[in-house]
Design brief:
Layout (H helix, E strand, L loop, with lengths): L1 H5 L23 H13 L4 H9 L5 H8 L2 E2 L2 E2 L1
Antiparallel strand pairs: 1-2
Length: 77
C-alpha cells in the first residue's frame, strides 16, 4: 500500500489484504494472561485477593473488574 501511494505510476494492479500500513502490537494481551496466571499460582480464593494480585500486572482497573466476573470461589470459570 505504501508503494502504491509513493509511486502509483509503477503499480498496474493491486490487491489489498490489510489497508493500514502500521505494525500491529501482537502481544497486547500478555499482561492479562500474566495476571490470570498469577492469581492461579497465588491460590487466592476471593475476588478482592485476586484483584490485588492482578493490580501488580494489569494497569486498567476496568479490565481487572471484567476478568473478575469469571472468578468464583477461587476458580476461573
Amino acid at each position: 500500500m505504501t508503494m502504491s501511494a509513493l509511486v502509483p505510476e509503477r503499480i498496474e494492479r493491486l490487491v489489498m489484504i490489510d489497508i493500514a500500513p502500521v505494525d500491529y502490537q501482537t502481544r497486547r494481551h500478555d499482561q492479562i494472561f500474566a495476571g490470570i496466571r498469577a492469581v492461579t499460582d497465588a491460590g487466592v480464593s476471593s475476588r478482592s485477593e485476586a484483584a490485588k494480585v492482578m493490580r501488580t500486572l494489569i494497569e486498567e482497573e476496568g479490565v481487572i473488574q471484567f476478568l473478575l466476573k469469571s472468578f468464583q470461589e477461587g476458580e476461573w470459570r
